[in-house]
Amino acid sequence: MKESRKTGHLLTEQINPELSHLDQCSTLELVEIILSEDRTITEAVEREMIKIAEAVELIVGKLRDGGRLIFTGAGTSGRLGVLEAAECPPTFGTDPRMIQAIIAGGNEAVLNSIEGAEDSRTESVEALSALGINEKDIIVGVAASSTTPFVESSLIFANDKGAGTVLVTCNTVKNSPADITIPLLVGPEVLVGSTRMKAGTVTKMVLNMLTTASMVKLGKTLGNLMVDVQPKSAKLRDRAKRIVTHITGVSEDEALELLSKSEWDVKSAVVMQRRGVSLKEAKEILQDHSGKLRNAINKGKK
User: Active-site residue among 13, 54, 87, 284?
Assistant: First the structure.
């Protein structure tokens, strides 16, 4: 028999006695109960805003120094990390190597449950070792229970390598292995222990905050416009056109012409129009201003 891991004391494993009648509820009552429980999510995030901001600053510092952001997790937590990493390149134009994710059980675990993978203390270490993590990188461990061996070992290994570490969890942590721990205490789940529910939702919210706020700080937006969008689909090409039109005030036809000349790089298209320069010059100006479009289109600022 495989060794068990005691988790009954964890907040996410507690039983909410007020919901013991769940299987006797009508469909509408079930929906109302789930919605009512989900209202605790934003409160949990509000309580940890300072730590979330601290984590963003740590991430930004590492990425500015040429490091990487790597999520580690198992099950739902691991899949949320994979989703976050996958969404950054098309949204912010990041190199796929900049933001990555490691999930217990490997890629197969994204679509299928790999039972027992979360209990491995070596898999995450081997994966991080293969990536050659160092002091420039930052590891964000995602574990609703806070005690997942796969995640815990990844953070300990990252610390040994001098990398930054963050733990996103839904339980209190006495001796956290991370530099920054973000406990999102949403309480017992509607369905006992099913952390794909409140825990999963609150975790998704915070991972969105960590990546989006970091990308804004790194100059990947102009205001709330995703000016580093990768227009590789019809929808995203239309969005790129609308962004150029909005910023420059040119017509849609002129925006399309600018995008064509800029090889569909929104930032370059805007700089070309606002500064009256060639594509080569636009790229040089952006480089001189660390990719920050607002500074690049305002002469004399760096």
Answer: 87
